[in-house]
Amino acid sequence: MGNEITNLEPKAVWSYFNKLTNIPRPSGHEENVAKFICDFAKEHGFDYTVDEVGSVIIEVPATLDKKDAPLVILQGHMDMVPVVEDGFTHDFLKDPIDAYIDGDFVKAHHTTLGADNGIAIALTLAMLEDKSLSHGPIRAIFTVEEETSMKGAFNLDKKYLQGDYLINLDSEDNGFLFVNCAGSYDVSVKFNFDVVELDDVQGLSLTINQLAGGHSGADIHLGHANAIKLMATILDDLSDDFDFFVKSLDGGFVRNSIPAKVTSVIAVPNAEKENFLNAFKQCFESQKELYKATDPDMALTVENTEVKSAMGYAQSLDLIHLVRSLPSGIIRMSPEFKNIVETSINLGVAVTSKQCIDLCMLGRSLNDTALSDIINTVKAHCYLLDNVDVVADNRHEPWSSPSQNRLIDVLNESYQQVTGSKFEITALHAGVECANFAKKNEALQLISIGPTILNPHSIKERVDIKGVNDIYLTVRRALAML
Fold this sequence. Notes:
By secondary structure, this protein is α+β, with helices and mostly antiparallel strands. It is 30% helix and 30% strand.
């Protein structure tokens, strides 16, 4: 399959991207891709640095005709979100991504593709190796752990941001140039419970899967069902008519991805088993009808299992009520940018351990006050129960830059030469590392662009082939013009 990809244009870009699919690089495990980039720098005679957290910085001197040109920073991140299709096994620390061409897109079999943000690495390396390209001094920065903690951007020494222009290649909508992005806040909710012994009950493993999932920033406006919220909704709808005892609730992969699968193990009195199952299936069908346009493949699996102990009835209800009531999805649309989400929150992960269920959430907002408000709303829900602990940390402030400057003018001119139209200047509800960079150099002119990537952070992730070429040619022309 890889050979087909390397025949795409621009060939240099797709050749590098194909190589990247063979380098495992989930967040926190970027050492192999960092070595790949360092080897590239060595091969081409460029100075490079690996900083204390593992980010790679390459210095490329200006061509002879551009000695007096301003310094341009090209930037992307090395890590990817690891999501695998239900029923398939993939070791993201060892196994390559099986990428292939599907019409106008490049996709992956059964996993996330890693175009977010491998395509930025491929675009940058292809431009840096191009000896025919006229350009001023270029600094390429490849950061670690963007998808989880922004560790690379947060810890980057500000000396690497002493330049004139920065082009972040991590946005995912061709034709749009972003000068604002959402800030974010991690929220970790711990539901502590006591275990009781049970008898005369039937254990049931209830699994809802094959939902669309998606990126909690880029796809939150699409109205996809959240598997964890869906399970809580159905169980809550049944709580007036049936007794049940929750043993576990597990779903999702990462907090910035809309969960596509959830499993809850519960116990019901033997005498109520059949009626409970019939009622559960009816509620499931009602939810499937509700989400038929966004999650048409939604499926339910029920298996009998042995349950000898679980949380008590009252705590089972507390858990279900809490999960159902926690805010999730769009909170407010932007009053400034048309059709852009201002504030949202995603319940991304539920994990059961001994006498504790961890709920991992990610709040986002273009507005700092609104970000604080939604996090405080979650805390207020949690404070109603004395067995719930909540911690909010890893806060990243929103980013806002001027919508007109020399960098934008040049990129617009270049993009118009390539595509016949100009960029639409707007805001991004997802987060990009520009927010951290802008604070470290207030004079830096920075923007974010990228080819269209649909359904990032999900097994449906795919990158638009034409968009890759558009962005490559646009940035290449801009480097020659700046």
